[in-house]
Amino acid sequence: MGSNLSVNESVQVVIVGGGFAGKAAASQLKSNGIPFVLVDIKEAFHHNVGSLRASVETGFAKKTFISYEESFQNHFKQGRVSGINLEKQMVVLENNEEIHYSHLLIATGSDGPFPGKFNKAATKEMAIQVYEDLVKEVQKAKHVVVVGGGVAGVEMAAELKTDYPEKEVTLIHSKIALADVELLPHVRETIKDILLEKGVKLVLGQRVSNLNELTFNIVQENMELHLDKDTEVITADLILCCTGSRINSSCYIDSFGDKVSSNGALKVNDYLQVEGYNNIYAIGDCADLSEPKMAYHAGLHAKIAVTNIIHSLMEKPLKTYKTGPVTMLVSMGRNDGVGQFNGYYMGRCLVTVVKSKDVLVSKSWKDMGQKMPK
After folding, report:
1. What is the largest CA-CA distance in the chain?
2. Which tens digits make up the pLDDT trace of 220-272?
3. Distance CA 242, CA 5 (A)
């Protein structure tokens, strides 16, 4: 890996989706001299690990969007993939343009509500401005309610209380335990302790019954949130939704039939190849693997898939991907955090240094060969 491989002119890898898996694969293909085209609806990679901080800190959003074109030049094409023609080996864009592939990397990722995700066809400047507008709404708000207590929800509540300790922040979660079920019980308890230390009010084991009637991300006075197990009405002037993540499957669901699992992810073998296709790989969130959907895993998938494409061109044995003990670091504002590494508890001070201080934005800029703005 890292030295140019001599390939014939028929080789072209097409990467559908430029999230953590897609941009990592593109960087590795570039460094190995393998012809590729990366397709994404946005013109910039979104380091969404930092999106929650970009929602509370003025000027941080510009650090979370990194130009594809500057990193990959004419190997990047902005567009929406509407379908995949398996017979002709073509990726079809919304404008009916077709891109031929010898190998296909599907890295469409997952989608969810803003601010945790931003999956819109937008310029870099437009995307940054959307987050800056939210920062202004947060600054105006007196009582912010975060709906959803998974990893995104607890990180959002912690970011709010870190930057605005005077604001009232309530987190509502449908389960009793916070964050991801794959985390160690001690990690989940520490997350709860941190939120309580910061002054977040926790409403656990209840759902918001009128969620579809509420307005998100914009300050409105006296918005009422009704709970499914309590007559109490929670009143807020800003509601941030951190629930409902789903696989982005629309561009391939019609092509792969029974290779698509019930949640929309693609079934893969031990080499991360889509079942039945030795030149098509699924990586990142859209790969049907029994592990948390995380940027960390997406990077591991990309490395295996690119290695296997190179090995297939060299007629060498393919490498297998095995899910291992969970590694997950949870940033609880820039001054706190907790997590686990390879299944072992990782303390608050260490996680703060490793992840929380800059939520790994500098790593993404370095990976894409660019200099991060100040």
Report:
1. 68
2. 999 999 999 988 899 999 999 999 889 999 999 999 999 999 999 999 999 99
3. 43
pTM of full prediction above 0.85: yes
CB count in 10 Å sphere of residue 35: 17
132-151 pLDDT, tens digit per residue, is 999 999 999 999 999 999 99
**Cβ–Cβ under 8 Å, residues 279 and 184:** no
Contacts of 136 (CB under 8 A, 6+ apart): none
Surface-to-core class of residue 167, CB atoms within 10 Å of its CB (0-12 exposed, 13-18 middle, 19+ buried)? middle
Q: How far apart are CA 186 and CA 184, in angstroms?
A: 5
Q: Give the pair of three-digit tokens for residue 50.
A: 């930092």
- Residue-wise pLDDT for 336-370, tens only, equals 999 999 999 999 999 999 999 999 999 999 999 99
Strand, coil or helix: what is 264?
A: coil
Measured at the CA of 243, the angle between CA 242 and CA 247, to 5 degrees, comes to: 115
CA gyration radius, the chain: 21
- Residues 191 and 154: beta-carbon distance below 8 Å: yes
pLDDT for the residue 1? 46
Per-residue DSSP letter, 256: H
Token pair in block for residue 25: 């694969």
| Beta strands at 98-100 and 168-173: parallel, antiparallel or unpaired | unpaired
Go through 12-33 and write b for each residue having 16 or more CB atoms within 10 A of its CB, e for each that does not. Answer: bbbbbbbbbbbbbbbbbbbebe
